[in-house]
Design brief:
The protein is α+β, with helices and mostly antiparallel strands. It contains five helices and five strands; from the N terminus they run αβαβββααβα. The protein has a five-stranded antiparallel beta sheet. β2 and β3 form a beta hairpin. α1 packs antiparallel against α5 and α4 runs antiparallel to α5. The radius of gyration is 22 Å and the shape is elongated. It starts with a helix and ends with a helix.
Length: about 210
């Protein structure tokens, strides 16, 4: 089956833009981690909002203002426990990895645009590998965030000293993290199609040299 380079170019353009937009929206929103305590609020007949949703940079309470998370890069002299320090290290890691993935996509978009216009085999190959590396960075950031969330939950349980309240609290990952997963898949597909485009260009050049 003959693969059309124009179709591949359209696919990588759509895939690359989609991956970038989804990741930007995910980083900018605060629905990575959701704590729904509405049942607890009802049972206590309280007016205080206990439910919250968190992003990479801040935590927001329902019907209340948002407040920033602790800066993970300025805690060396802080009087905190080792477990808290470990959480801050993990927080700092995924806060770096997610924007880094965006930067890699920007460079990949620039090299991809040039490589498609020039139909340069090596540049197409390098762009495909760059997108796949960016996808690996995104996946690493997701993995660290999930591990961070699990560790933070365990720390909260230890501080709470009671698991009875957890029955009335619904804790789940939000749609912002779903957007990151979609971005990751789109990034992998974009990188794979760039490699396929490089193969198409390489085979075409070999046929031309044989003629």
């Amino acid at each position: 089956m003959k693969v059309n380079l124009g179709v591949l170019s359209l696919f990588v353009a759509l895939g690359g833009v989609s991956s970038f937009v989804f990741l930007v929206v995910a980083i900018a929103t605060d629905f990575w981690y959701i704590i729904d305590a509405s049942r607890l609020e009802t049972s206590r007949n309280g007016t205080d909002a206990l439910s919250s949703h968190s992003g990479l940079w801040r935590t927001c309470r329902v019907r209340s203002e948002c407040y920033p998370l602790i800066n993970p890069f300025w805690h060396e002299n802080a009087n905190i426990t080792d477990s808290h320090r470990q959480l801050l290290y993990m927080h700092g890691t995924f806060v770096i990895l997610m924007p880094l993935s965006l930067i890699l996509m920007i460079f990949g978009g620039m090299t991809g645009f040039i490589s498609i216009l020039a139909r340069a085999y090596l540049l197409l190959l390098m762009t495909g590998l760059l997108f796949l590396f960016g996808a690996l960075v995104t996946l690493t950031g997701i993995s660290v965030y999930i591990a961070y969330s699990a560790a933070a939950f365990e720390e909260a349980v230890c501080l709470l000293r009671s698991k009875d309240l957890l029955v009335e609290i619904d804790i789940r990952f939000g749609w912002s993290l779903t957007l990151v997963w979609i971005s990751f898949v789109a990034e992998v597909l974009t990188g794979a199609v760039f490699l396929l485009a490089a193969r198409v260009v390489g085979l075409k050049r070999r046929r031309e040299q044989m003629l």
